[in-house]
Structures are given as structure tokens and as C-alpha cells.
């Protein structure tokens, strides 16, 4: 679950290549023809070569468009009923579960979590002040910088997950700062279990999915079996098991659902159809906190719309609603690469709902892959060439001062230094999120392999030069 990481990397790779969408009127006077959505998505899937994608558009109390494109890992056509992981889109579902119990009096939204959740404690006295609301709007003080989120990924249940927080601390006083941290919503999911007396899976099925008619949805693989997601290997999509981590019953990213079911969810989120909480409760979830434009599982955009992306290692997803017009959009993809196709698709579909023309679907992801492939081959070639020429290099520098020779070795070792700091760099540009090494070999696979090739080539050249230099000196 790495929100904004894909968009930031993609922007860094080719910010100048992104075309701006044409200006659109504020709102369409008449509803767009569903064929406009289909034509746009067909072009987008062809341009991006994403292996599988599904999307839904709702307006008011109706689903006006739902479809799937491509094939799943079993070779079956993707449809609006194909279950996919939606990653951090799950956070809005967990917030809804909490709000249901808040309105029933089983949870106090503005009371400390510690008073309502036995077993919740941290190695920081400020943790006793964290409220349920602060978990949902991510102003609790939880942060990847002060919590060992890698250790949490090995948890076997929500109860185990919460117990592992005992030796962690907060990065800020509760309610004073915002930091995106999955621990917030997983603690909230455990609170749902304790307050309801049900497992998170049972509560979501009985109190959220069933009332809304979401028949393709669950919180566990064993209940709804999604196919494998994909990663791009220099433009070739390869099916892969999702990276190991805490997914089953995860409140931060465990929901598995379909485009058809997301349509029912979006209708309810726009205040139409079956309602799970009061209008006031829904409004509270859609209202930003005092310190960040983020509500309870929803980012509050500057134009009044609400959205949330979801990024796993092999799946991407996004949800979007416009409370003013009543439109809702969800897009889900079985492919996770350096650019997020689902976010681009959502923006294009939103432009169509407004009566405008979406930006031309971009094949920038394929361009990134080609450039990285060429860079990888160049790194290997230069490495081989450097090793072949190492004898001549050593001959020219025999007898020179050692420090000057050492300086001449520095440039070929720079790629190794860059590669060693790669996860830390990605974590930095993603706002402090912890991105461990194993995740670098999923969504960022082509870039990781390119940097690895350059690092290995540089080290090989440096070693060859050192060996040759020693031989020349010894011979002299």
C-alpha cells in the first residue's frame, strides 16, 4: 500500500511528457453516452498494454457504466465482476465499519482508543491520548518513521498486529500533524472486532457488503479468490504472487472487490441507495481534518471531490466521488508498474462526466520500460568494455600517487552507492513511507534491475582495475 509513490516516480521519469487535458465545462448538461467511457478505456488499455482493468461509473442512484478489459491470470476475460485487490481504497471501508458502530454507541469517536481497545499500548505515553477519529483521519501521530511497519507485516491477525505496537512510539503529538500510516486503519479494524464481538471479515460481510449487495467482495483470499496480479518486466507483463504481507482482514488494504460492487459502494457514498449510516455520519467521513485535506479514508480534493488511490505490489485501484454532481468512479487494475494507469483512467472518465474530452491515453509507461531496457543493456555493455580495458587503465596509472588512482575509481562505484540507497530514496520521495527492499522488485522492477545492472557493472570494473593494477605494480 504505497499511495502517491507511483505517481511521484512516474512524474520524476517523464514530467515533461504528460499532456494536459483540454479545458472542460464545469458540468455536463446531459449524461454522456456510455459508449464514450468504453471508447476511452479501450484506447487506454491498448495504449498502456495493462493486462487487466475494470471500471465503473455511477450517477445518483444508478450504475451508468461498468466493464472489464483484458484477461486475468487464468486466461479468463476480465469483467465488471472480476474480483481484484483494491489496496488502500480499503481505508474508506474500514472507516465506514467504525462509523456504523459509532452511531450504534459501541465506539466513541472522540474518546481515546486505549480506553476502548484492550491490548493497545505503545512505548510512548502520548499513545493514550490518540482518539478513534485521529486513527481514521491519520492524525494520530502514527508514522512509518517511528513504527516498525516491516515487523507489522508479519502479523497473523489484527490482535497480533496491535500487540506488536507495544515497543513503537509516535512521531508527533496526537491531532497536531498528518502522516499516512497503515497502522492507523489496522488498529481501527481491530477496534471494530472488539466493539462488535465479530471478526472483521464477518462484520464487513454482514454489516457492509451484504446490505449493499456487494456479492463479489470479501476481506480474505479464502472467501473471494482474486487471480494473480502483474508486474512489468521491461514492458512484458509477468503474473506474480502478491508480495508477502499483512493482507487478510487488513483494515488498511485487505478488501477484495469488483467494479460492479464498487458501483454499489460509490452510490451509497454519494448519499443514494442503501445507507449504512446517517447523512451526518457520511458527511463526517468526507470532511477533512484541521491539519490535512484528508477525511476518514478519503482525500478531500481542492475542487470538492473526494478520492483515494490504492497501490499494492501487483494491483492498483482508485475511487472517486463528486458529491455535487452525484458521479462516482472506480478503476481497478491487475498490473502495477512505474506509472499508475488507474489514476489516469479515473481522470479521463471524470473529464467525460463533465462533458469534456479526456487527455489522449499515454503510452509513457511503455516508453519508461524501453528507456530502462536500453539503459540496462548499456550498463552491461559498458561494464564488459571497462573490464576488457582494465589492463590498459592499470598500465597508465602505475606509479602514480595512490590517492589520485583511488579518485579515478570513484565514478564507476557511484551506481553501487545509488543502488544501495534506492529504497531510502523512494521512501523519501513518498513522504516518509517505508518501502523495503523486497518491494523494489515488484512495481519498480525495471528501474531496480537497471540500477542493479549499473551497480554490478561498476563494481566489476572497479575490481578488474584493482586486480590489474596490483599485477602491474607487482611486475614492476
UniProtKB/TrEMBL annotation:
<dbReference type="InterPro" id="IPR050491">
    <property type="entry name" value="AmpC-like"/>
</dbReference>
<feature type="signal peptide">
    <location>
        <begin position="1"/>
        <end position="28"/>
    </location>
</feature>
<feature type="transmembrane region" description="Helical">
    <location>
        <begin position="409"/>
        <end position="429"/>
    </location>
</feature>
<feature type="transmembrane region" description="Helical">
    <location>
        <begin position="367"/>
        <end position="388"/>
    </location>
</feature>
<feature type="transmembrane region" description="Helical">
    <location>
        <begin position="441"/>
        <end position="464"/>
    </location>
</feature>
<protein>
    <submittedName>
        <fullName>CubicO group peptidase (Beta-lactamase class C family)</fullName>
    </submittedName>
</protein>
<keyword id="KW-0732">Signal</keyword>
<dbReference type="Pfam" id="PF00144">
    <property type="entry name" value="Beta-lactamase"/>
</dbReference>
<dbReference type="InterPro" id="IPR001466">
    <property type="entry name" value="Beta-lactam-related"/>
</dbReference>
<feature type="domain" description="Beta-lactamase-related">
    <location>
        <begin position="38"/>
        <end position="337"/>
    </location>
</feature>
<keyword id="KW-0472">Membrane</keyword>
<dbReference type="InterPro" id="IPR012338">
    <property type="entry name" value="Beta-lactam/transpept-like"/>
</dbReference>
<keyword id="KW-1133">Transmembrane helix</keyword>
<keyword id="KW-0812">Transmembrane</keyword>
Amino acid at each position: 500500500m504505497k499511495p502517491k509513490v507511483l505517481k511521484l516516480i512516474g512524474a520524476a521519469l517523464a514530467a515533461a511528457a504528460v499532456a494536459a487535458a483540454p479545458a472542460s465545462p464545469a458540468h455536463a448538461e446531459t449524461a454522456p453516452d456510455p459508449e464514450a467511457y468504453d471508447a476511452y478505456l479501450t484506447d487506454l488499455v491498448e495504449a498502456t498494454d495493462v493486462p487487466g482493468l475494470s471500471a465503473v461509473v455511477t450517477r445518483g442512484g444508478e450504475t451508468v457504466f461498468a466493464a472489464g478489459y483484458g484477461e486475468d491470470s487464468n486466461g479468463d476475460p476480465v469483467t465488471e465482476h472480476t474480483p481484484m485487490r483494491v489496496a488502500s481504497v480499503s481505508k474508506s471501508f474500514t472507516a465506514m465499519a467504525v462509523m456504523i458502530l459509532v452511531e450504534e454507541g459501541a465506539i466513541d469517536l472522540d474518546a481515546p482508543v486505549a480506553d476502548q481497545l484492550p491490548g493497545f499500548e505503545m512505548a510512548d505515553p502520548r499513545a493514550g491520548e490518540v482518539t478513534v477519529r485521529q486513527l481514521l483521519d491519520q492524525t494520530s501521530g502514527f508514522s512509518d518513521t517511528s513504527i516498525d511497519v516491516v515487523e507489522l507485516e508479519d502479523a497473523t491477525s489484527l490482535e497480533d498486529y496491535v500487540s506488536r505496537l507495544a515497543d513503537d512510539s509516535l512521531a508527533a503529538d496526537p491531532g497536531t500533524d498528518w502522516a499516512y500510516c497503515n497502522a492507523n486503519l489496522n488498529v481501527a479494524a481491530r477496534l471494530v472486532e472488539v466493539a462488535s464481538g465479530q471478526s472483521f471479515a464477518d462484520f464487513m460481510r454482514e454489516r457492509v457488503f451484504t446490505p449493499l449487495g456487494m456479492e463479489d467482495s470479501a476481506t480474505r483470499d479464502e472467501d473471494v479468490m482474486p487471480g494473480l496480479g502483474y508486474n512489468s518486466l521491461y514492458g512484458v507483463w509477468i503474473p506474480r504472487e502478491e508480495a508477502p504481507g499483512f493482507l487478510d482482514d487488513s483494515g488498511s488494504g485487505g478488501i477484495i472487490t469488483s467494479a460492479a460492487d464498487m458501483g454499489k459502494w460509490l452510490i451509497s457514498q454519494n448519499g443514494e441507495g442503501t445507507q449504512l449510516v446517517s447523512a451526518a455520519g457520511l458527511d463526517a467521513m468526507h470532511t477533512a481534518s484541521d491539519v490535512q485535506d484528508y477525511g476518514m479514508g478519503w482525500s478531500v480534493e481542492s475542487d470538492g471531490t473526494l478520492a483515494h488511490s490504492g497501490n499494492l505490489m501487483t494491483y492498483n485501484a482508485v475511487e472517486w466521488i463528486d458529491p455535487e454532481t452525484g458521479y462516482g468512479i472506480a478503476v481497478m487494475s491487475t498490473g502495477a508498474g512505474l506509472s499508475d494507469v488507474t489514476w489516469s483512467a479515473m481522470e479521463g472518465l471524470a473529464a467525460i462526466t463533465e462533458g469534456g474530452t479526456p487527455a489522449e491515453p499515454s503510452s509513457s509507461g511503455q516508453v519508461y520500460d524501453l528507456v530502462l531496457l536500453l539503459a540496462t543493456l548499456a550498463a552491461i555493455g559498458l561494464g564488459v568494455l571497462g573490464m576488457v580495458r582494465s589492463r590498459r587503465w592499470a598500465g597508465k596509472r602505475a606509479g602514480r600517487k595512490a590517492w589520485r588512482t583511488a579518485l579515478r575509481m570513484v565514478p564507476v562505484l557511484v551506481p553501487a552507492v545509488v543502488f544501495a540507497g534506492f529504497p531510502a530514496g523512494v521512501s523519501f520521495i513518498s513522504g516518509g513511507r517505508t518501502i523495503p527492499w523486497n518491494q523494489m522488485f515488484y512495481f519498480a522492477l525495471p528501474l531496480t534491475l537497471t540500477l542493479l545492472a549499473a551497480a554490478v557493472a561498476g563494481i566489476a570494473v572497479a575490481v578488474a582495475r584493482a586486480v590489474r593494477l596490483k599485477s602491474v605494480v607487482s611486475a614492476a
